[in-house]
Specification:
Largest sheet: 4 strands, antiparallel
Radius of gyration: 39 Å
CATH topology of one domain: Outer membrane efflux proteins (OEP)
Helix content: 55-70%
Number of helices: 10
Oligomer: single chain
């Protein structure tokens, strides 16, 4: 009796490999949300962005100081030795002083502009942190599904290797009994050797992808959960123009550029304030103590003086520094306006690209699903033809190889659609950690 792999044995083989790859570490497997949270606490790039955000907040607070009251306390002590032609004039004395002063700006247009800039700087810092967070979401998701894709590739290669090994053994038996030629055996052997090389490459690729994910999340031996079957993908909602409008209004890069323009406009106001006067309210309290008198009197003195007033300053000429500073800020203002327009164009292009890539990804998934069914039918027919002698062993191997590759490509296409949905939201400025939850629900659970 000829030994040929049946459809049942092939399905059982695939299932066994799936269980071995996907369930051997299922109790220790991690979901996408869990690994993202780990990456958020470990990733150096995101931590750098978070610390930069905190530094920007502190810098913004510095800009508000110019509109607040300032206070100072000074103290001093001096020793004097006086010589004269009489004993009364030859004596030593010391002086102790302490002064508390305060000043509050009443009219300082430059300081008011700096205060308004500080508020805009906080908005810009928040937008920059959102950019880093969205990039981390994409990097984690991409690394997560890269591991699954490499795992699926290894699964396909191993299943193909087992099928080829069975065909090789069958070809050898048929050759020994004289029902097949040596050509079938050599063809199966050559295919087996090629698949063996592919298996080694697939194992190495999986190891590298896992190392990348480990480095990103700060864990060793990560085991991402696979997608549960059947996989139901949700198509993109809305047309591309609505997504572009959302991107130009909400994307953190656009918001950051808009804040930069507003800051540049306020910088022009600060420069123009160099021609304007300033007015401050001032107050001071001074205490003076001379325990052994002073230069004019030998008696002990304690003096306290209080001064309350206004300080007015009118700039007259600064060597053309103010005029040139205004020219500089006007040029930088136009630059910021151009940068904002450039940011809008960039996010619009990225959004359109992400939208159409995602739409084509859905179409590719549907086409590969149909191709999988066709490939399965081809395997069944060529196997039957091989059993009755109509087709040769190579035809069966080619059909099985096509089926395994189609299944692998279908899995990769699904991963690309899931990541593409996140990329579209990132391009339009809407991506947040909450967007990982729907994908998390699609993962197989222990």
């Amino acid at each position: 009796m000829n030994a040929h792999p049946s459809k049942t044995s092939l399905s059982g083989l695939t299932l066994s490999l799936t269980l071995w790859l996907g369930c051997s570490g299922l109790s220790q497997a991690q979901s996408l949300v869990e690994l993202y949270e780990a990456a958020r606490d470990f990733d150096a790039a995101f931590q750098s962005a978070r610390l930069q955000y905190e530094a920007n907040l502190a810098r913004a607070e510095q800009g508000k100081a110019g509109m607040r009251t300032t206070a100072n306390l000074t103290a001093g002590a001096s020793y004097s030795q006086q010589d004269g032609n009489t004993a009364a004039l030859r004596r030593n004395f010391d002086t102790q002083t302490a002064t508390a002063s305060a000043s509050h700006p009443l009219y300082r247009p430059a300081n008011q502009a700096a205060y308004d800039q500080a508020i805009k700087q906080v908005e810009a810092a928040k937008a920059q942190l959102e950019v880093a967070e969205q990039e981390l979401i994409l990097r984690t998701s991409q690394a997560y599904f890269d591991v699954l894709a490499a795992q699926d590739n290894l699964l396909a290669v191993q299943a193909q290797r087992t099928a080829v090994a069975e065909q090789l053994a069958s070809a050898k038996r048929r050759f020994e009994v004289g029902t097949a030629t040596i050509v079938d055996t050599r063809q199966a052997q050559a295919t087996f050797d090629r698949i063996e090389a592919s298996r080694i490459q697939a194992e190495n690729d999986l190891a590298v992808r896992r190392l990348t994910l480990d480095q990103l999340v700060g864990r060793s031996g990560t085991q991402p959960l696979s997608l549960a079957t059947p996989v139901r993908l949700v198509q993109v909602e809305g047309d591309v123009n609505r997504w572009v409008e959302e991107a130009q209004a909400r994307h953190p890069n656009v918001r950051s550029a808009r804040s930069a323009l507003e800051i540049a406009e306020l910088e022009v106001v600060r420069a123009q304030a160099g021609h304007k006067p300033t007015l401050d309210a001032t107050a001071s309290q001074t205490f003076t103590h001379t325990p052994r008198g002073n230069a004019s009197s030998a008696s002990v003195n304690r003096v306290s003086s209080t001064v309350i007033g206004l300080s007015f300053n009118l700039p007259l000429f600064a060597g053309y520094a103010t005029q040139n500073r205004i020219k500089e800020t006007l040029a930088l203002n136009e630059k910021a306006r151009s940068d904002l327009e450039g940011a809008k164009r960039t996010v619009a292009q990225s959004t359109r690209s992400a939208y159409f890539t995602l739409a084509s990804g859905y179409g590719r998934v549907q086409a590969l699903q149909a191709a999988e069914a066709s490939a399965q039918s081809l395997v069944d027919s060529t196997r039957l033809g091989y059993q009755v002698g109509v087709t040769i062993n190579l035809d069966v191997l080619d059909a099985q190889s096509q089926l395994f590759q189609t299944r692998r490509d279908l899995a990769v296409a699904r991963y690309e659609v899931l990541v593409g949905g996140l990329r579209l939201k990132q391009a339009s400025g809407q991506l947040s950690p909450n967007d990982l939850q729907p994908i998390n629900k699609m993962l197989a659970r222990p």
